[in-house]
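Q: For a teaching session next week I want to show students how multiple molecules come together into a single three-dimensional assembly. I've collected the sequence lines for a complex. Could you give me the predicted structure tokens for the whole thing so I can convert them for display?
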Amino acid sequence: MEESIAFAHDREVKVFVAINTFPSPGAERIWHEAIDDSARFGADALILADIGLLDYASRRHPGLRRHLSVQAAAANADSIGFYARTFGVRRVVLPRVLTIQDIRAINDEIDCETEAFVFGGLCVMAEGRCSLSSYVTGESPNLNGVCSPAGHVQYREEGGFLESLLGDFIIHRVGSGSPAPYPTVCKGCFSAGKYHGHVFEDPKSLDASILIPPLADAGVTAVKVEGRQRSRAYVSAVVRGLRRCIDNHAAGLPMEHLQFYRLSEGQATTEGAYQKKWR
Amino acid sequence: MDRDAAAQHVGLTVGALLFNWPRDKWRDFYARLADEAPVDVVCLGEVVCSKRTEISPDVIAETADRLQRGGKSVVLSTGALITLLRERKECAGIANNAHLECEINDFTALAYHRPGQRFRIGPLVNVYNEGTLQFLSGLGASSVCLPPELSLGAVESLAQAARGLDMGCEIWSFGRIPLAISGRCYHARIASRTKDSCRLVCLQDSDGLDVKTMDGKNFLSINGVQTLSHSYCCTVDDIDKLKAAGVTSLRLSPHSCDMVTISEIFRARLDGHMDADEAWSRIRNVCGPVGFTNGFLSGGAGAGPNH
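A: Of course. Below is the structure for the complete assembly, covering every listed component.
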């Protein structure tokens, strides 16, 4: 960590350290050490979700910037105000359940910065409030930092179908020879009453890059790429594209679609909840 | 009651109804609970969706009175996902009401908290460790219902920590397990509507709408913006372990099955008047053809192994 932070700082890049799982009882020491190490090695900010960790970091390292992780699901100005007042949080990563109008209204009321996801996986559930993955696999974003982890995935050919399973449950079934989507629970194909299909969300990724101008106008300080379990090539390509979008916007040039469909889940993208009809 | 006996008494709490029931069904349910159920605490209030307006504040106040006359403590529960101004005002109203203790289901409620005011922590907020428990105890938390995702080992540690902080510690013990909450309404989505034009389609499903996998296996249950397990959590096998862990109350989540009988079965199990086999046989009789799971408590996937 020390070398990586120095490497980034040499190139004038800030490093924020996400310590946004929720510590297990009896093992908080491990999370506290991660916070202490980040402070010692000169991280520019911590991204935290757990109230116990926010309390620890604000007492032990008051000078180290604290950001509120999306996993804390602070979805309104009062909640954000509580974290800012109580733990000195300087920036909040906004849940992906908010519309642009919601974000504008929040920014009008709060004294800290906001950061919005614009690219990558799309959590259809309120982040940090979802245990679908642990219901199926025993491992979750909150406790293990993973969602629908690959170790629990199977692909199975049966009766002319290709099925993708997570744990014991079939999440997708397509005709043999077609590509079966990765079995993320909330993107699966199920039946509910007379409905058959994607009950929760289609297997799409978030691409809200085209919305950078209205997000900036709504007062958002930074945009975020979901990079968990992603390759260097992916991160490099996406960051380069988004940098261009931001620079174009700053220069008054029109927005362009990133055309990263092949990097996206299901090779399809959505602008998510930022547009109200998504709800 | 002497100190040891008090330490061993494990209560029963009826959690807030998560589903959208018609007003008459709702009133009948709580009237019978007030008069007949051997429970200690009842949580009232709409937790899942602020568009559900079947139950007015007057009806809640009237019901709270009746429950109190029936010897129950009444707690008001806040919403679980608060985004709109109206939802913030409702949450502030519950947090600051003068009469009843508040159960917070979103940390937004802490924004309205007054110094020294007592409150309860509901099962839908993230309290996973001692540090968080200690911080909330310092603000005035009197009890916590732990997230249903925890293993028995985690429950033991947190129940012990709660006891040290003089807080109650409750465990999700009966009913479908809340797994997620969203800005999007799934009941509306599958009826080709949006959340804003839902026309309260969720009223049709008293215990949620079954979600099955493509091979017809029961999987989840949708309840408007909430997703629950299809299987019911049921801890009647684990009563002795939970008592030994220092749990102070078991939470029963209302479903349309006979909840008075369910509470009687849990009370009898806690008092040592019924063995697990008889409890299971009666519970199956009351619940009909549903699956059960205590996978989370066993420390594995929440869905299994099925009982």
